[in-house]
Design goal:
Blueprint lengths: L5 H8 L4 H10 L1 H6 L3 H4 L3 E4 L7 H7 L2 E9 L9 H6 L3 E10 L5 H15 L4 E8 L4 H12 L6 E5 L20 E4 L6 H10 L6 E3 L15 H6 L6 E5 L15 E5 L8 H10 L5 E4 L1
Parallel strand pairs: 1-2, 2-3, 3-4, 4-5, 5-6, 6-7, 7-8, 8-9, 9-10
Helix pairs in contact: 7-8
Length: 289
């Protein structure tokens, strides 16, 4: 084994499980160094929930990077031991998915802490945040939304269940558009957030999903979104409720796939949707849900 180059050892370690990699660190100095080589960890994914939260600390402390990290933060108490590690880890994660309980005070701010640290490490490209229970503290939701809205290097953003009447988004500044995929459950409370994200990343967005879960809220008040979507130069795929003013998308030269989620509450938008379908010659696939 002494004759094997480090590159060959790294290739072998890509097939070892996490515990075996940790063990290699204790065998000898050379294996210990190879065991924390970025290529040995780059393609790995890890998931942690309340019952296994304590296992996140060794990975976040030792691993140099991860491809995907999924954390279910349903109780702040279970993650108290990891708060410092979440804020100081050097493990750069490419994609982070966080499930949260809005009834647990402080959990949303803890998620924001995790995302801020990953942004600082420079490798974060995809974020998914999902609220599993209603948020009893709107300020925490605002902090979390403002955190993800201020990340200029993201390629993919999915937001489900989290709303805030007045997220503090005005102060954030983007040097360039980066987001290519945006998915958010459009509701009256989240309309301003959706508008901000779409406007900030207008030059990069290629896929937008604003439908979310089946809801009967009336979307006729969201009058600014359709013209904004129509102005996206690279939009290829759109899934949306029948927003007022959808006919403006008929002039989009890039849109190829359209999915319309039809609800009785969207009656005011029927005319615009019909005009879009009759005039849009560039569409290659249309779905009515």
């Amino acid at each position: 084994m002494e004759q094997l180059p480090d590159a060959a050892l790294v290739m072998v370690m890509q097939y070892l499980n996490r515990n075996d990699l940790f063990t290699c660190r204790l065998v000898c100095k050379r294996l210990g160094a190879v065991a924390v080589h970025p290529n040995a960890w780059r393609g790995r994914s890890h998931m942690y929930c309340n019952s296994t939260a304590f296992r996140a600390c060794p990975v976040l402390r030792i691993a140099p990077c991860l491809n995907y990290l999924e954390i279910h933060m349903l109780s702040e108490e279970m993650f108290q031991c990891c708060q410092l590690m979440l804020a100081t880890t050097r493990c750069a994660v490419r994609s982070v998915a966080v499930s949260l309980s809005g009834s647990e005070r402080g959990v949303l701010r803890l998620a924001a802490l995790l995302l801020r640290r990953q942004e600082a490490l420079g490798g974060l490209r995809a974020v998914k945040i999902e609220l599993c229970e209603e948020d009893e503290n709107g300020d925490d939701a605002s902090v979390l939304l403002a955190t993800v809205a201020s990340m200029p290097d993201l390629k993919r953003l999915v937001v489900a269940g989290i709303t805030a009447n007045k997220p503090n988004l005005v102060s954030h500044y983007f040097t360039s558009s980066s987001l290519e995929y945006f998915e958010c459950e459009l509701r009256p409370e989240s309309a301003s957030f959706c508008t901000f994200i779409i406007a900030a990343h207008a030059n990069a967005l290629q896929e937008v999903d604003l439908a979310g879960r089946p809801m009967e809220w009336i979307c006729s008040s969201s009058t600014s979104l359709a013209p904004l979507l129509a102005g996206l130069p690279n939009l290829r795929k759109l899934r949306s409720r029948m927003l007022p003013g959808l006919e403006a998308l008929a002039d989009s030269t890039s849109l190829r796939e359209l999915s319309l989620v039809v609800r009785p509450a969207d009656q005011p938008g029927v005319g615009g949707a019909a005009a879009l379908l009759s005039r849009a010659k560039q569409l290659r696939a249309v779905t009515l849900e």
